[in-house]
Amino acid sequence: MKKTVVLIMALVLTFALAACGKDNNGGNDNGASPTGSAAPGGDVKGSILAAGSSALQPLVDQASKKFMDKNSGISIQVQGGGSGQGLTQVAEGQATIGNSDVFAEEKLDADKAKGLVDHQVAVVGIAAVVNPEVTVDNLTKQQLIDIFTGKVTNWKDVGGKDEKIQIVNRPKSSGTRATFEKYALGEKTEDLQGSIQEDSSGTVKKLVKETPGAIGYLALSYLDDSVKTVKYEGVEAKEENIINGTYPVWAYEHMYTKGEPDAATKAFLDYMMSDDVQNGDVVELGYISANKMQVKRDAEGNISK
Amino acid sequence: MAQSFERQKAKPHVTEEWVGRVYTLLCIFLLVATIFSMVYFVASRGLTTFFGDGVNVLELLTGIKWNPEGEPAVFGALPFIFGSFSTSILAALISAPLGFCAAVFMVEIAPRFGRKYLQPVIELLAGIPSVVYGFVGLSVIVPLFRDIFPGQGLGIAAGALVLSIMILPTITTIATDALAGLPSGLKEGSYALGSTRWQTISRIVLPTTLPALLTGIVLGIARAFGEALAVQMVIGNAPHIPRSLFESTSTLTSAITLSMGNTAMGSVHNNALWSLALILMLMTFIFVFIVRWLEGRSKI
C-alpha cells in the first residue's frame, strides 16, 4: 500500500510540475498584456515584465523595488538578457518593457521598430580607457580610428612610449561597442587578429588594468583609478561635458513599450522619470539623468539643442 | 482460505505494476519529447541561416572571416570550429596521461588509500562550478602565461589548460572503473608467468582496458567541446585562427555566449549563432556514436 501511495504522489507531482510549466507560460502572457486598470481610488494594478539590457538592469531593478514598495498593486519583474533580447521580446509581446542601450531602429527591422514607443530614462557616457602604464592621455578621433582599425599598432605613433597596443574590445553585438564606434570613431570596425573581446565591462576593466599597452572603452559608471581614462579630442569624459554636448560619446538608455503603455506601465515609467529616481538612483548608479541633458539626439545621431 | 488470501494479496500488486509502468513510461516519454523538441528547435533555427537567409553551408564551414554585422555580412565559422577542436583535443592530450597514471596508482599501486581518499578528491574537481575555473584561469593562468610567453596570455593554451583540469575527473573516474573491473585472473596469470608489476600494467592492464580508456578520453573531449563559460573567459574571443597558442581566438561556444543575448531573435546574426549551436550539437552526437562504438569493442 505504501508503495502505491508513493507512486501516486510521484504521479501527482509530475502533473503538478507540468502544470507549473503551463502556469509560468500563463504568467509570461500576463506580463505581455498586463491587466493594468485604474481603480476609482487612483490605485493601479498590474504586472510588468521588463527585460533586456544588462547595462540598464541595475537601475531598473533598484527603481522597481522602491516603486513596488509604494504601489502594492503592481508587480514588476526585471530580467537581463541583452538589448537584442529585450527589443525582440517587447516587439513580440513577451515582455511589457524592453530595455535597450541602442535605438530600436538599429537592431530591429523598420516595421517591427515602428510599433515601439521609446522612453529615454538615462544617459550613459562611454570613455576610452588605457592601461595605467600608458603615457598617452589624449587621443583624437583619427588616432582612435587608426588604433581600432589596426593602422597604428604601437603607442609611440600616437605620442606614447614604444609599446605594442593591445585592443580589448566588446563583441560586435554589444550596445557599448555600437555607441563607441558610432560616436567616437564614426565607423564600424572589424575584429582584428589578436584583439581581445570580452562580453562584460568588468572583465574589460580587469584586462585593461593588467595587460601592458591595453586600450578599451567603458561606461563612465565603471571607471575608477585602476584604469586610466583618456580625453577625446581634448575633452574630458565628465558628466558636465556630456550634459552640455561637448563630449559626444554617450547614449540613451531606452525603455521601449509596444504601443502606448497601459496604466500600470505608465505609472512605472513616470516614476522612472521622477526627480526621486533621476536625482537619486540614476546618479547613485553612475548614469546621467535624462532630464538634465541640454542636447538631444535622434536615432540617426543628429544632435539638437 | 488460502486461495482468497492469495487473491487479496495479488490485487494491489497489479495496480502497483500498472502505476509503475505508466509512470516510468511517462518519464521516458517526457525525456524523448524534450530531446526531440530541442533538436527540432536548434535545427530549425540553425538551418534558417542556409535556407532563409541564403548563407552557403560550405562558406560557413570553411570561411575564415566572421563579420556578421558588416556590409555585406560574412559568416565564416572555421576559426570557431578550429578553436573548439584545438582547445578540447589539447586539453585531452594534457589530461589523459595524468588521468591514466592517477587511475593506475589508485587501482594497482595503492588501492586502499587511493580509492578511499584520492578518488573522492579528484571527483571533487567535477563539482567545482565552471565560472570558478574561468575566474581562476583569468586571474592566475593568464597573467602567468603573459609573463612567460610572448602575447597576452589569453588563447588556446590558457583555454586548454583550464579545460584539462575540468575534464580530469571524467577521464580518471572512467579509467579507474575500467582498471578495477579487470578480471583478476588476467593479472594473476601475468604475474604467474614471471612478469613484473610494470610489465603487467603496460602489456596486460592498459591494452585490455584501452577501449574503456578511450571512452573516457572521448567523453572528456565532448565535455570540453561543450564548455562555454570557463573557456570564454580565458580565450580572448577574437574571431580569427590564431598564429600561436598564446593569441586570442574563439570557440563555437564562446562565440554563441558572447553574442546570443545582444542579437535580436530572427536576425541573420542570431540565426548564424544557432547554426553554430547546430554544429556543436552534431559534434556531440558524433562523440556519442564514437563512445558507443568503443563500448562495443570492449574486450572485458
Structure overview:
The complex is a heterodimer of chains A (305) and B (300). Chain A has 2 domains: 46-121 and 253-304, Periplasmic binding protein-like II (D-Maltodextrin-Binding Protein, domain 2); 124-243, 3-Layer(aba) Sandwich (D-Maltodextrin-Binding Protein, domain 2), CATH 3.40.190.10. Chain A is an alpha/beta fold and 305 residues long. Residues 16-42 of chain A have low confidence and may be disordered. The radius of gyration of chain A is 23 Å and the shape is elongated. In chain A, the strands form 3 sheets. In chain A, strands 1, 2, 3, 4, 5, 6, 8, 9, 10, 11, 13 and 14 form a 12-stranded mixed beta sheet that branches. A two-stranded parallel sheet of chain A has the order 7-12. In chain A, strands 15-16 form a two-stranded antiparallel ribbon. Chain A has helices spanning 2-32, 57-70, 83-91, 104-107, 110-114, 141-148, 175-185, 201-210, 239-243, 263-273, 275-284, and strands at 37-38, 44-52, 74-81, 97-100, 116-117, 120-130, 138-139, 166-169, 196-197, 214-219, 228-229, 231-232, 250-258, 288-289, 296-297, 303-304. Chain A is built from 11 helices and 16 strands. With 300 residues, chain B is mainly α. Chain B folds into 2 domains: 2-52; 74-296, MetI-like fold, CATH 1.10.3720. Helix content of chain B is 77%, strand content 1%. Chain B is built from 11 helices and 2 strands. Chain B has helices spanning 2-51, 57-62, 78-109, 111-127, 130-148, 156-180, 184-192, 197-226, 229-235, 252-259, 268-296; strands at 66-67, 74-75. In chain B, strand 1 and strand 2 form a beta hairpin. Chain B is globular. The termini of chain B are far apart. The model of chain B has no long low-confidence stretch (mean pLDDT 89). The interface between A and B is large, with 42 and 47 residues.
